[in-house]
Design a protein that fits this description.
heterodimer, A: 408 residues, alpha+beta, Butyryl-Coa Dehydrogenase, subunit A, domain 1, Butyryl-CoA Dehydrogenase, subunit A, domain 2, Butyryl-CoA Dehydrogenase, subunit A, domain 3, 3 domains, four-stranded mixed β-sheet, four-stranded antiparallel β-sheet, 43% helix, globular, B: 384 residues, eight-stranded mixed β-sheet, two-stranded antiparallel ribbon, 10 strands, 50% helix
């Protein structure tokens, strides 16, 4: 066992913190943290991401052959943590999609997508959920028909995706489709990597509960919009198929664990534990009586300890990854514990602050620009998306504990 | 950063698990509850023969010199089998003596490692508060002696221990520690009847004369010694508690897979599955926290807050797990003839020993709120 980062890793942390101090000016931060166009995007942010890519910080863990550093998962975590703390931006060279390309792509696909994703010239959004299915993804209906001959073999895509965050800024969609119309459930699914500028794709905004007024910097799930994406006879070259046709379920599962665990997943659940403690110590005249209240102190300590468990579960996942071992239930456990902790702590902070916790950004008398009110609007989102906590508990019980499936 | 046990740690843990599964059977546990000593001398001897009593003691004291995390893993496994032996009290006192004791006191540790000398420790006063402040017992210097008056409570293994590591308030010198011969005149133990049916006792001191050679460490070191004693005790109690709780959860999972109701195993129902998932998460959390605390203690890093985090979490969650295991078992779970209650009764007791949830949370809250500067998860806190 070892519960510290190495000296080299701590030195890198210092370097990253200095970089953030130099580059994340007020102007850039405003650009990065607006939820209107998608967090982490915007004209002021683009040059910063180029600098991050030049330093290799968003691709520490990826192979050198594709532009990465061939470094450790733990080091990547440490760097991602600093950037997420500073501006709630997720670095990591493309996020969704790229890990799956590395796991299942052809050599040509890896060469095409990975270096460009590191430079942020390729940005994936995730085309999983449909109006009638989210958690139960095996119900996907979006259809891709293989057609054509010789050099013109292609797929024609028809259907709809929903809750496609960042579709408005993505260059590509990582699209789960049904390629075999006779298939049911997990069979007959495939993954296509579809350029968003392909004719026949329409992106329509869906405004979230965080819209008007938008949340301040620090809000978790502060996106003011997500999207619906419609596919109307969209013609996609066969070279966009990732992995084997019909193997889409397995392809989509590879790399999914790292979507459910990691620096940003951890921080969206625990950042407010730090925020409330620091606010209680801030000298705000509303904080002073709370700081000495026995019930508040007991609750703050309870939540802090839960936050430590979030951190340690994340470190456990990083350890498993770093050792090259496979997850059993650990990723799912983290995806239950951390989001539910985020909800508990958000609601508990609400009761500590009392009526002030309802005041949004821009309201008179709000606390920290309405941060805690905006968090109350979205804390529960992390228990819903990327695999609901109920489905995660099913996985823990069946895979981790070996409990039986119900008889029909 | 690598927060899971490595190969050697896993090997020791598995070896201990097999040993305790074979040697510490429920029948042995039941027999020990009826024995006045409350422990199995035969099992104690076998543990000593394996060298495990010195697992994390220095080699110059006859120990194996392995990191404290190994002692934690050993306690987890002893707890898993609710082994009726005074392992916790002996290891805690021995670790403090190894670090702070005189040459003569360190020499005693060879007898401890051989299994010939059982140790206990005494921290709490009549209020039952878990604190290194040593309230409730005073020591007055008289020539070459210190005279102790007052009481200590919840002293586990007192009856069988040869020496007891006692915290007291020295006149004018603050907190101090002494290794007291338990046969000293004026010292009287009264057995408690606890849910665990274990060997905790109240110990009353009536003008107990302790030679100055029995004092542990320099007077100026008293607070640090008391802190170490409390940290080792609470951390290793959490290890023992987490080990017992994991086994308790496993009983429930096994039972849920077999017991049928409404035409199928109850473990196929999501209501049971989701409860079991939460039980697993709770035990894992307690274990991760205590591993970090023990690792930091071993590295000589400040660890009191990490210890409090672990004990507060375990005290809260382990009882949830044990109560849920009872729920899953239904009526059979609380029948004396069924073994599950052996675990439940100990988990209740151990979650209350070495500091309550409330007390440990107070330590964490004070470190969070009374120290200047901003806090950040992952950056250690300093006790207030």
């Amino acid at each position: 066992m070892d519960f510290t980062f190495s000296e080299e890793e701590e030195a890198l942390r210092d370097e990253v913190q200095a970089f953030i101090k130099d580059n994340f000016t007020e102007e850039v931060l405003a650009d990065l943290t607006t939820g209107k166009r998608g967090r982490g995007f915007g004209p002021k942010a683009a040059p910063i991401f180029r600098k991050i890519a030049e330093r290799g910080w968003n691709a520490i863990v990826w192979p050198k052959a594709y532009g990465g550093q061939g470094g450790s998962r733990i080091t990547q975590f440490l760097v991602e943590e600093e950037f997420y703390r500073a501006a709630q931006v997720v670095i990591g060279g493309g996020g969704t999609g790229t890990p799956a390309v590395l796991a299942s792509g052809t050599e040509a696909q890896k060469q095409h997508y990975v270096p460009a994703a590191i430079r942020r010239e390729i940005i994936f959004c995730q085309g999983y959920s449909e109006p009638h299915c989210g958690t139960d993804l095996a119900g996907v209906r979006c259809r891709a028909t293989r057609t054509g001959e010789g050099d013109d073999i292609h797929y024609v895509v028809n259907g709809q995706k929903i809750y496609t965050t960042n579709a408005q800024v993505a260059t590509h969609i990582f699209l789960l489709v049904r390629t075999d119309p006779e298939s049911r459930r997990h069979a007959g699914l495939s993954i296509l990597l579809v350029p968003m500028d392909t004719p026949g794709i329409t992106v329509r905004p869906l405004l979230t509960v965080q819209n008007e007024p938008g949340g301040p910097a620090g809000t978790t799930y502060g996106e003011e919009r997500t999207n619906e994406v419609f596919f109307d006879n969209v013609k996609v070259p066969a070279s966009c198929l990732l992995g084997e046709e019909g193997d889409g379920w397995a392809v989509s599962q590879r790399g999914l664990n790292l979507d459910r665990v990691g620096a940003w997943r951890y921080l969206i659940s625990v950042k407010r534990d730090e925020d409330i403690v620091n606010w209680l110590k801030s000298g705000d005249e509303r904080a002073a009586p709370l700081k000495d209240d026995a019930a508040v102190r007991d609750k703050v300590a309870e939540l802090w300890i839960e936050g430590q468990v979030c951190r340690l579960m994340t470190m456990r996942s990083m350890t498993i990854e770093q050792r090259g071992q496979a997850f059993n239930y650990e990723g799912a456990a983290e995806k239950v514990w951390a989001p539910e902790h985020g909800v508990r702590t958000t609601e508990a902070i609400g009761q500590m602050l009392g009526p002030h916790a309802q005041l949004l950004n821009g309201s008179p008398d709000n606390v920290q620009d309405g941060l805690y009110a905006h968090n109350l609007l979205s804390a529960f989102q992390s228990t819903v998306n990327h695999g609901s906590v109920q489905v995660m508990r099913d996985q823990i019980a069946r895979k981790g504990l070996g409990l039986p499936k119900p008889r029909k | 950063m690598d927060v899971l046990p490595d190969e050697q740690e896993t090997l020791i843990q598995e070896t201990a698990r097999e040993f305790f599964a074979a040697e510490s059977t429920p029948a042995l546990v039941r027999a020990a509850e009826k024995d006045p000593s409350r422990y199995s001398a035969a099992l104690w001897k076998k543990i000593a023969d394996l060298g495990w009593l010195g697992i994390s003691l220095p080699e110059d004291c006859g120990g194996q010199g392995l990191p404290l995390t190994y002692a934690g893993l050993l306690l987890e496994e002893a707890g898993r089998a609710i082994a009726p032996v005074p392992l916790h009290g002996t290891l805690v006192a021995a670790l403090v003596l190894a670090r702070h004791g005189s040459a003569a006191q360190r020499a005693l540790l060879r007898q401890v490692v051989q299994g010939e000398l059982i140790l206990s420790f005494a921290v709490q006063g009549l209020q039952g508060a878990w604190s290194p402040a040593a309230e409730g017992l005073t020591g007055r210097a008289e020539g070459e002696y210190v005279v102790l008056n007052g009481s200590r409570t919840f002293v586990d293994g007192f009856r069988e221990s040869g020496h007891c590591l006692v915290l007291y308030q020295a006149e004018g010198d603050g907190v101090a520690a002494a290794l007291v011969d338990t046969t000293s005149a004026g010292m009287r133990g009264t057995d408690y009847v606890t849910t665990a049916k274990d060997s905790q006792a109240r110990v009353d001191f009536d003008n107990v004369r302790v030679p100055k050679s029995a004092l542990v460490g320099e007077p100026a070191r008293g607070a640090a010694i008391a802190r170490d004693l409390c940290d080792y005790a609470a951390a290793l109690m959490t290890s023992q508690l987490a080990g017992a709780t994991r086994r308790d959860m496993e009983f429930a999972v096994e039972y849920a897979g077999q017991r049928e109701a409404f035409g199928q195993p109850i473990g196929a129902f999501q209501a049971i599955q989701h409860l079991c998932a939460d039980m697993l998460i709770a035990v894992d959390g307690a274990q991760l926290l205590v591993h970090e605390a023990l690792w930091r203690l071993d590295q000589g890093l400040p660890a009191s807050i990490e210890v409090s985090q672990a004990k507060a979490f375990a005290g809260d969650k382990c009882i949830f797990v044990a109560r849920s295991a009872q729920q899953i078992h239904g009526g059979i779970g609380f029948m004396m003839e069924f073994d599950l209650q052996l675990w439940y009764r100990r988990i209740v007791a151990w979650s209350l020993r070495c500091g309550s949830v409330r007390e440990h949370r107070q330590q964490v809250a004070a470190a969070l709120l009374e120290q200047p500067g901003k806090v950040r998860l992952g950056m250690p806190l300093v006790p207030a």
